[in-house]
């Protein structure tokens, strides 16, 4: 059975690349354009990993994660932030919310998949 990954990023091209890399490795992918959309997709289904950007319209990644953590089903779901942000303060905020990995764009698919396999 394949594992399901929720990908939240406002960039269609990033979602496309991430989706392609994950699907080629056998993952099922659910896409969302922002935190608000991603939150709506957390409807009780089993999600093995959440990948989120930090900067998104309507609801940013850290706010999305904060809200996702309030949902019992997703309290312990591993999270990987995939972002252009390298700010230590943001990373610390993310870590406090239980974010397991922080990957900076642009990413190399092998590095990305290695991080994914460690988290799922």
Please state roughly what percent of the residues sit in beta strands, choosing from under 5%, 5-15%, 15-25%, 25-35%, 35-45% or over 45%: 15-25%
The SS-based structural class is: alpha/beta
> How many strand units?
5
How many domains comprise the coordinates?
A: 1
Outline, from the CA principal axes?
globular
Q: H/E order of the elements?
A: EHEHEHEHEH
Q: Which sheet architecture does the biggest sheet show?
A: 5 strands, parallel
Q: Classify the helix fraction into a percent range.
A: 40-55%
Average the pLDDT over all residues and give the rounded result. Answer: 95
Query: Which architecture does the CATH hierarchy give at level 2?
Result: 3-Layer(aba) Sandwich
CATH H-level name... which superfamily?
Response regulator
Q: Reading side by side through the largest sheet, how are the strands ordered?
A: 2-1-3-4-5
At CATH level 3, the topology is Rossmann fold
Number of helices: 5
End-to-end Cα distance: 13 Å
Q: In terms of per-residue confidence, which ranges show pLDDT below 50 for 5 or more consecutive residues?
A: none
Q: From the alpha carbons, calculate the radius of gyration and give it in angstroms.
A: 13 Å
């Amino acid at each position: 059975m394949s594992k399901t990954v929720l990908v939240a990023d406002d960039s269609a091209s990033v979602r496309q690349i991430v989706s392609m890399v994950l699907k080629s490795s056998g993952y099922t992918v659910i896409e969302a354009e922002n935190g608000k959309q991603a939150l709506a997709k957390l409807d009780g289904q089993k999600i093995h990993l959440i990948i989120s950007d930090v900067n998104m319209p309507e609801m940013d990644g850290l706010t999305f994660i904060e809200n996702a953590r309030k949902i019992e089903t997703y309290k312990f779901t591993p999270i990987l932030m995939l972002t252009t942000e390298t700010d230590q303060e943001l990373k610390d905020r993310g870590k406090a919310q239980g974010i397991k990995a922080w990957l900076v764009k642009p990413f190399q698919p092998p590095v990305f998949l290695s991080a994914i396999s460690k988290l799922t």
